[in-house]
UniProtKB/TrEMBL annotation:
Protease is among the record's keywords: yes
Signal peptide: none
Keyword Cytoplasm recorded: yes
Species per Swiss-Prot/TrEMBL record: Achlya hypogyna (Oomycete)
Family: Belongs to the peptidase C15 family.
Name of this protein: Pyrrolidone-carboxylate peptidase
One CC-aspect GO term: cytosol
SUPFAM superfamilies: Pyrrolidone carboxyl peptidase (pyroglutamate aminopeptidase) (SSF53182)
A molecular function GO annotation: pyroglutamyl-peptidase activity
Any single GO BP term: proteolysis
Length: 204
């Protein structure tokens, strides 16, 4: 039987500045990874819930309408992290400790009515961490700020489509883990994950 390898679309996103993070590492990672052979499209999004919906809603809608195999790969910074965190899940809770860049500061608000309290990615996060190796770890705490908000939205919009996938990766500051080392980890992750998803979504 001949399998037609799918053209997996990979949408890589990062964020701009917020609060005292004037230079967000995810901005520079996304800009550098723009030319990665596994990446189809990149976006650096203002760190604000309204900007997340404005930027990503057309992409979620296109993925759903086209049926095109798609990976939404989100990057954000965790300034307390010492390793790269592959996030296993997102929570249906917006509980911002500081306003986002548009001035929104929700307190214990549900993100999506009618959705579960937590949604896990369908991707094998623990296995990916094991395969990528040093410098990364699993996490079940994406926070309650714009990163979690983004992850939960993406998971809701893709969870009923077998050929759509989402992963959120938190990176530490470059002072903790240099940009070059972070790029090695993310490139290795993309190199493992994307060909595998292409094969899984191949059609006979």
């Amino acid at each position: 039987m001949h399998l037609s390898i799918s053209t997996m679309k990979v949408i890589l996103t990062g964020f701009g500045k917020f609060y005292n993070i004037l230079e967000n590492p995810s901005t520079y990672l996304v800009q550098t990874l723009r030319d990665d052979p596994h990446v189809t499209e990149t976006r650096v999004i203002e760190t604000a819930a309204v900007a997340v919906k404005q930027e990503l809603a057309p992409l979620w809608d296109h993925a759903r309408a086209s049926g095109e195999p798609t990976l939404f790969f989100h990057l954000g910074v965790d300034d307390s992290a010492e390793e790269v965190h592959f996030e296993e899940c997102a929570y249906n809770l917006a509980d911002f400790c500081i306003p986002d860049e548009a001035g929104w500061e929700p307190q214990e608000e549900i993100i999506f009515e009618g959705e579960p309290d937590v949604i896990h990615t369908s991707l094998p996060v623990a296995k990916l961490v094991e395969e990528v190796g040093l410098g990364c770890t699993t996490s079940t705490d994406p926070g309650h700020y714009v990163c979690n908000y983004t992850y939960f939205h993406s998971l809701v919009h893709t969870k009923s489509h077998a050929n759509q996938f989402v992963l959120f990766v938190h990176v530490p500051p470059f002072e903790v883990l240099p940009m070059e080392d972070q790029l090695v980890i993310i490139r290795k992750l993309l190199g493992l994950l994307v060909p595998r998803l292409r094969a899984e979504t191949a059609s006979p």
